[in-house]
Specification:
CATH superfamily: Hotdog Thioesterase
Shape: elongated
Order of helices and strands: EHHHEEEEH
Strand order of the largest sheet: 1-3-4-5-2
Distance between the termini: 28 Å
Number of helices: 4
Strand content: 25-35%
Oligomer: single chain
CATH architecture: Roll
CATH topology: Thiol Ester Dehydrase, Chain A
Largest sheet: 5 strands, antiparallel
CATH class: Alpha Beta
Number of strands: 5
Helix content: 25-40%
Number of domains: 1
């Protein structure tokens, strides 16, 4: 469980805590099953290599889930992920790699709600493997928190 972050707590330029995800055969097989992406490139080394890949590799859903985990850890459970842009795989994230997800706050603004823009990317031993991309998230404000504590409405 992460502590809830409020819009006023966000500092432009602040780095998100990096998260590391070792890619084991087990993790790749479970991700393929959970996403119903049964393409053999994601769980069979011999097949993946026959297609030109260096080894079996992570699918989009697993890699996007890593970004979501990093963002969720930063924004807390009351934050809302509103948009994901620029999610591009640059190189393979193969079994045996450790994927490190990183991010930084690039902007914050108010539009009736507190919004932030995060730059996100993933790295492995070969450098940036996914991204950079952008995530727009909505955070509760102190006004909303104080209204909730007082049992009233912030509207």
């Amino acid at each position: 469980m992460t502590e809830q972050r409020y819009w006023e707590d966000v500092i432009e330029g602040e780095d998100l805590a990096s998260l590391s995800f070792p890619l084991t055969v087990y993790r790749l097989v479970m991700a393929a099953g959970a996403s119903r992406d049964f393409n053999s490139i994601h769980h069979n080394s011999e097949f993946a290599k026959s297609t030109g890949a260096p080894e079996m590799y992570a699918n989009n859903y697993l890699l996007q889930g890593m970004w979501e985990r990093a963002v969720r850890q930063y924004i807390g459970n009351k934050g809302v992920i509103r948009q994901l842009r620029g999610f591009r795989m640059r190189n393979f994230n193969v079994v045996g790699d450790t994927v490190v997800v990183k991010g930084r706050v690039v902007r914050k603004w108010l539009e009736d709600v507190g919004l932030i823009e995060l730059e996100m990317w993933s790295e492995n031993a070969n450098g940036v493997s996914v991204g950079p991309g952008r995530v727009i998230a909505m955070l509760p404000t102190e006004r909303q928190r104080n209204a909730n504590l007082a049992g009233g409405s912030a509207i």
